[in-house]
Amino acid sequence: MKKRPTIALLICLFIWGTFAYGQEQTEKETAKKRPTVALVLSGGGAKGFAEIGVLEALDELEIPVDYIVGTSMGSAMGAFYAIGFSGKEIAEEVSKQDWESVFTDKKVGRRTPISKKDELSRYAFSFPIKGGIKLPKGIVRGQEVMNILSKYTVGYQGELDFEHLPIPFSCIVTDLETGEAIVLEEGNLPQAIRASMSIPSVFTPVEIGERVFVDGGVVNNFPTDVAKAKGYDYIIGVDVQSSLLNKKELVSATDIANQLLGFLGKKRNDENVKLADVYIHPDISKYSTNSFEPEEVDSLIAIGRRAALKAYPKLKALKKKLGENSAKEKHILPNFKAPLTFKHIKVSGLKNASENLFRKKLKINDKDTISVANLKRKIDDVSAILNFDLLTYTINQDTLKFVAHERNNKLFNVGFHYDSDNNSSVLLNTTWDNFLFHNSRASFDAILGRNLQFTVRYTLKFGDIPHLNFIIDTKKYDLRLHESNERLAEGTFSYAKFDTNAQFVVWDNYSAGVGGRLEYVHLDQTISNDTNYSSIPQMHKWYTNYYGFIRLNTFDDAYYPQQGRRFDGEMKFVTDNNEEKGLVLYANYQDVYSFTENFAIKSSLYGRAIIDNSLSIVYNNFWGGIAHTNYLDRQIPFVGTKWIQGYNNTMAVGRLDFRYQLFRNNYLILTGNYGHYSNNIDTFFGDTSKNIWGGGITFSYNSIIGPINATIMHSNVVSRPILHISIGHNF
User: Fold this and answer.
1) Strand, helix or coil at 304?
2) Can you give the pTM of this predicted structure?
3) Angstrom distances, CA of residue 4 to CA of 1, 7, 461
4) How far apart are the C-alpha atoms of 449 and 549, rounded to whole Å?
5) What distance in Å separates the CA atoms of residue 428 and residue 448, rounded to the nearest whole number?
């Protein structure tokens, strides 16, 4: 009798379970029976942000999406939506990004080796050498793009069938060899999106297996035909393409590339527009594919939302056809903000660097945990240190996998420079890694212009023990001395150096070393029309230098740093092995502090002194000019003066640069400096020492060939303001 309640309870549970199962099956059958919906998102560069506003509207109407296919930027927006992001969540994350750096692959980091920072601050263009000088496959390699894609696709990396994403997904790419449009439906999700976004000549192509892919928009930028071929009942198409541009609107390489894509795909695109049951075409005529400024991104999202509102009657009609009870499924979004946990690290693609060196510089251990932000910093650092063009990662199960793409080991580099003091010059450089020996680098410079220079450098690297540098350097340039604003005298200065040093790389951005240098100096007699001027006599002589140096550079940018500091120090003993000798001390310290993203102050201290000096005048401190140049390694810059304003034995200069970014790549810089000098270190603080002060205001534009600067400056040693123009990188 006591068992009857138990039996009755079991019977009730069975009946309830059977009913619940039947109801669940009925709901699934209903979902299967309702019409299916495909979402198609076109490419369009920054204009693709308008698609986010449409996604927000679809969420509000709770329209279910059964399949997504996208091209270029549409593939990125579509992939994020497919793995569970809502339109609102995509908008929030998009607004946090610095899209200028994402699509320009900023190369310099605080841990970038000093030697490489010097290179990056000199060259405007680099070309690979492969059986001759070749144009690069694209301007942007896509490191920052891959960092973004990998960050937001955590949980959906490794080899996947995109059909099994929360919403089935495909993206369109173009086979670069055959010109065929390919529908990618499996593989590495971030890599597939990156391939679909590879605008020819702007982004480098992506290799997947044995094939090479570029932007799908080359052939099919609005792939409604793909969704139609798969048999979906209704197609919602979001088209952010613009009509063909006129000549005034073609203002960038991306605009030109997209114009060409528009020509190629116009016929197919017109046909595909007709396949969309709900066609949404936001009015983005005032925006370009490069509209990545924060306010532009926000406006594009709002424009997309307004376009969706105009299409509300059609969307609501579609919703009615799907059934009043149809709704978008709720998907669990992977926590991309959570630290990444793994047990193993694997790396592939290494040719010149060893795996041990990679792990040492990466500074991540097996069985470790790391935040996505910290991992990005590690990737930036190791890429700079080991000379990678691209370093991608995926988290698959318990393994953190890296794929390295090493930079071409033979490069031809070009730099341009013009300034009011030394006119135009061109730098031609050839750099060859692993020349003659492994872990070596050979470099040849030819600077052509009024001032000529030829430099050959060969470096042997031995891991943690000193690097050996062998340098031959020749220069010839005009030396012009000024009194006030007028040229007082001029002559020709030439020299040749034969240098060997051992360099200890203590950290990646800090080094110290010792070396010896044999130096031949030739100075023609200076000529002056001023009868009161005591000319510098002609001379030609060999000198021997024994020196030690310390260098530190953590600046994050050579010309517009936001953080970091720099120190260059040298002590050398110079002698002609006869009567002349002297101990030369030099130091230059710079520090930058950023108060906001737009405002920073850089402080600089320069000092140079000669002790026990019996050296000729060519070893004195030549001072003047707005920037430190490489024509004279004994030059101390001073804003508000000519190049060269004077020379002395001992000098110290303090300088402050107040820099404000007016808008993208445009800066206003206010500079003030003060100097103190004497002709003997013993009288540096005496009555015979002299003071100078000056300053200037500079408008600076960060161009593709380097900074373009226009400066008005003045000082107490000139009679009227000086206009100084400079264009291009300093070398």
Assistant:
1) helix
2) 0.77
3) 6, 5, 87
4) 30
5) 8
- With CA atoms as reference, report the closest residue to 77 among 60, 56, 62: 56
For residue 22, give both structure tokens.
Answer: 């039947």
Q: What are phi and psi of 572, to 5 degrees?
A: -140, 145
Q: Tokens 């240190």 belong to which residue?
A: 385
* Type and span of the H or E element at 429: strand 423-433
Residue 161's Cβ-side half-sphere holds a number of Cα atoms within 13 Å equal to 2
**Structure-block tokens of residue 49:** 């942000």
- CA geometry: angle at 368 spanning 367 and 371, to 5°? 150
Strand partners, 646: 623
Q: Over the stretch 578-604, which tens digit does the pLDDT of each residue have?
A: 999 999 999 999 999 999 989 999 999
Whether the per-residue pLDDT at 24 is higher than 50: the answer is: no
Amino acid identity, position 28? K
Q: For the chain, state the CA radius of gyration.
A: 32
Which pair of structure tokens corresponds to residue 387? 């000379």
Is the backbone of residue 320 left (phi > 0), alpha (psi -120 to 50) or beta?
alpha
Condensed to tens digits (0 to 9), the pLDDT of residues 622-636 reads 999 988 776 677 789
Residue 72: how many other CB atoms lie within 10 Å: 31
d(CA 662, CA 438): 47
**Alpha carbon distance 544, 538 (integer Å):** 20
For the record, the structure tokens of 104 come out as 């320009």
- The confidence score (pLDDT) of residue 48 equals 94
How far apart, in whole angstroms, are the C-alpha atoms of residue 637 and residue 655? 10
- Give me the amino acid identity at 452: L
**Counting runs of H as helices and runs of E as strands, what totals does the chain give?**
14, 37
Q: What pLDDT digit, counting tens, does each position of 284-294 carry?
A: 988 888 888 88
Task: Please measure the distance between the N-terminal and C-terminal CA atoms of the chain and give it in whole angstroms.
Answer: 101
Which amino acid belongs to residue 442? A
